[in-house]
Each structure stands twice: as C-alpha cells, then as structure tokens.
Write a structure and sequence with these properties.
Blueprint: H1 2-11, H2 20-34, H3 40-49, H4 54-57, E1 78-80, E2 87-89, E3 93-96, E4 102-104, E5 109-117, E6 121-127, E7 132-142, E8 149-150, E9 155-159, E10 169-176, E11 179-181, H5 183-187, H6 189-208
Antiparallel strand pairs: 1-2, 3-10, 4-9, 5-6, 5-8, 6-7, 7-9, 7-10, 10-11
Length: 209
C-alpha cells in the first residue's frame, strides 16, 4: 500500500495546466525529442533537460506493474527456456506473485491489443506517448478492452499462470517499434527522477541559506 499511497500523494501536487495552445506546443516539443529515444538513460536526460512535470512523465511506462515486487525471477537476457528447452532471449522480466495479485498500468495510455496465445497466455498491450508500449502476459484476468484509455496505477489485470509457464508470475515487457527494451530501468524511473529533483531542491535551499 505504501507504493501506491506515495504515488497518489505526489499526484496531489501536480501543477495546474496552462493554456491549450501552450500545452499543445509543449507536447509537440516533447514528442519530437522522445522520437529517437530507446534507452532509459537518454529518456531521463531529455526529461531532465525539458524539466518535464510529473503528469508529463506519467504518459510513459515509468513504474512497476506490481505493487512491492519482491524479486525478478528471470531478467532481460539470453536464457535456457524452462518450457521449450532451448536457449532463447527473454524479451522482458518475470515478476513472481500469487495468482490474483493486481497488475497496474505503468503509464497513461491506450489499450491497443489484448487476447490469448499459447506462449503468453492472456495478455494486454498498452501504447504510451512516444510510441512506447508496455506488455503484460500470463494473466489470469483482464479488466480492460481494446481502445480503452487507462491511467497510470489503474488496475488492468491480475497475475496468473496462463500460457507457457512453470508457475504464477507476471511477464512484463517494454517495446518500441520492433525493439524490446530492458524494463528494469524504466520501472523505477518516476520515483528515481522525483528523488533526484527533491535532492536538487534541498541542495539549492542549502546553498541559499
């Protein structure tokens, strides 16, 4: 509960929006800058240089899809697949949790795909700003449908073990175009940037005293 409580507390301090024209220009500027971005380091650098607000950052997949994840059982790496018995690149991360654990949208976006296949089981894909997409698989239950608009921290599904799995967990990916991105850095991005801004604010206060 601490995870979501802290996030919702932050949202209370979102700045009021400006004029529609200025907002449109701002979104166009951010979209242009983020178009060539694939790495989390580059994303953070641009976000910092543009002084992106919390609500602007929330348009990207920047938090964990599971509250208080305890561990990552399989990372973004080459591995020996436990079901197919072959070496294969794992295009996301696996987060073990009991069946029925809530799964949350990691950023504001639109549901562009959901369904079932033999590998991923029940899955959902959400498109975010900058053409980034988050993907959630092996779900036991889905709570959104294609074309739904979803908000960051909104529950969209429940953890399960559908598809090719050896146990209950969430398989989570971040995609852009035809590329798969390592979700680890993205999952802690929002709180990392908030902490950096808070430390910078404290530093500026200290040198002005």
């Amino acid at each position: 509960m601490k995870y979501l409580t802290m996030f919702f507390a932050v949202l209370l301090y979102l700045p009021a929006s400006g004029q529609a024209f200025d907002s449109l220009n701002r979104k166009t500027e951010i979209k242009k800058c983020m178009k060539p971005v694939y790495s989390i380091n580059e994303f953070c650098r641009i976000a910092d240089s543009l002084q992106m607000s919390i609500d602007e950052l929330c348009d990207y997949p920047v938090i964990f899809p599971i509250k208080e994840p305890e561990r990552i059982s399989s990372g973004f790496e080459m591995r020996y697949h436990p079901i197919y018995r072959i070496r294969k690149f794992h295009t996301g991360i696996d987060i073990p949790k009991t069946k029925g654990t809530p799964v949350y949208a990691t950023g504001n976006g639109i549901v562009t795909s959901k369904g079932y296949n033999s590998g991923y089981g029940y899955y959902i894909e959400i498109e975010h700003a900058g053409s980034f997409r988050s993907f959630y698989a092996h779900l036991s239950k889905t709570m959104v449908t294609v074309s739904d608009s979803v908000s960051i921290t909104q529950q969209i599904a429940c953890v399960g073990n559908t598809g090719a799995t050896t146990g209950s967990h969430l398989h989570y990916e971040i995609r852009k175009g035809k590329r798969f991105l390592n979700p680890i850095g993205w999952c802690g991005c929002l709180f990392g940037m908030l902490n950096n801004k808070q430390n910078l604010f404290r530093f500026k206060q200290a040198i002005n005293e």
